[in-house]
C-alpha cells in the first residue's frame, strides 16, 4: 500500500471536532433527578467569508447524562467546523449548555439567533469589507454570546465556553493532528483538528448560514 500524500495546506480540507466531554457537575435545576440534558452549540467563521459571507454552526443535544458521565463520539468526533478548507484561517467557539426546555427546536433557535444578530449587526458588510483572524475571533465570540443569551431566555444554563483560532501559515498548518483539553467545574472536554476530506456522517453535519 502506497503512503498517503502529505497534507497540502493550500487545498486539503480540515475538520475541528469534539472528541469527548465529561459532565463533572450538574446545575441546581437537576439535583433531584441526578440526570441532565447538556447540549453543544458551535459557530465558526473562516477567511472565505471575504467572498461569500458565511457562518458555520452546529448543535447537538445529549439527554439523560448523569454527573460524572463521559460522552465520546465514534469516528473522528462531533463536527465543530468542516470538513472544509478554511482559506487562511478559521475562528470558532463552542458553547456547552444545560437544557431546562424542549430540545427538539434547538437547531432552529440557534439559526434564528445567528440570522437575527447577523442582520442587526450588519455582519454581511463587515465580513465583505475585510476580515482578519482577530476580527473573525471577535465576531465569533459576539455570536456565541448572542446565542447563549437566546438560549438562557428559555431558562437554560450555560456550563462552559471555549474558543480557538487556526492559521494556515504556521507549522503544522491549522494545528492539524493536535488535541486540546480544557474545562471548568462543570465540563471537561477534548477537541482535535484533523485532516478530513469528507464527513463520516456519524453525527450532525455542520450547517451554514449564508448572509
Description:
- This protein is an alpha+beta fold and 211 residues long.
- The protein has helices spanning 106-121, 123-129, 133-152, and strands at 14-23, 35-36, 38-46, 54-61, 65-66, 70-72, 78-84, 89-98, 157-167, 179-183, 187-195, 207-210.
- The chain is 20% helix and 38% strand.
- A hairpin with a 3-residue loop joins strand 10 (179-183) and strand 11.
- It starts with 13 loop residues before the first strand and ends with a strand.
Note the main attributes of this structure.
211 residues; 5-stranded antiparallel sheet; 3 helices; globular; alpha+beta
Count helical runs: 3
This entry's quaternary arrangement is single chain
Portion of residues within helices: 10-25%
Q: On the 0-100 scale, what is the average pLDDT?
A: 89
Largest sheet: 5 strands, antiparallel
Q: What does the secondary structure layout of this molecule look like, with pairings?
A:
Layout: E1 14-23, E2 35-36, E3 38-46, E4 54-61, E5 65-66, E6 70-72, E7 78-84, E8 89-98, H1 106-121, H2 123-129, H3 133-152, E9 157-167, E10 179-183, E11 187-195, E12 207-210
Antiparallel strand pairs: 1-6, 1-7, 1-11, 2-5, 3-4, 3-8, 4-12, 8-9, 10-11
Amino acid at each position: 500500500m502506497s503512503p498517503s500524500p502529505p497534507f497540502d495546506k493550500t487545498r486539503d480540507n480540515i475538520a475541528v471536532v469534539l472528541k469527548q466531554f465529561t459532565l463533572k457537575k450538574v446545575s441546581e435545576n437537576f439535583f433531584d433527578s441526578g440526570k441532565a440534558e447538556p447540549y453543544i452549540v458551535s459557530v465558526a467563521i473562516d477567511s472565505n467569508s471575504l467572498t461569500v459571507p458565511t457562518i458555520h454552526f452546529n448543535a447537538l443535544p445529549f439527554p439523560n447524562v448523569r454527573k460524572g458521565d463521559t460522552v465520546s463520539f465514534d469516528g473522528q468526533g462531533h463536527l465543530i467546523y468542516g470538513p472544509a478548507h478554511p482559506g487562511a484561517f478559521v475562528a470558532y467557539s463552542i458553547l456547552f449548555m444545560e437544557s431546562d426546555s424542549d430540545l427538539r427546536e434547538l437547531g432552529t433557535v440557534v439559526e434564528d439567533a445567528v440570522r437575527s444578530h447577523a442582520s442587526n449587526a450588519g455582519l454581511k458588510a463587515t465580513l465583505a469589507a475585510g476580515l482578519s483572524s482577530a476580527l473573525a475571533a471577535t465576531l465569533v465570540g459576539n455570536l456565541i454570546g448572542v446565542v447563549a443569551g437566546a438560549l438562557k431566555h428559555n431558562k437554560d444554563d450555560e456550563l462552559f465556553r471555549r474558543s480557538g483560532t487556526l492559521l494556515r501559515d504556521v507549522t503544522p498548518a491549522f494545528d492539524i493532528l493536535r488535541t486540546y483539553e480544557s474545562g471548568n467545574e462543570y465540563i471537561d472536554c477534548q477537541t482535535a483538528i484533523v485532516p478530513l476530506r469528507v464527513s463520516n456522517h456519524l453525527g450532525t453535519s455542520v450547517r451554514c448560514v449564508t448572509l
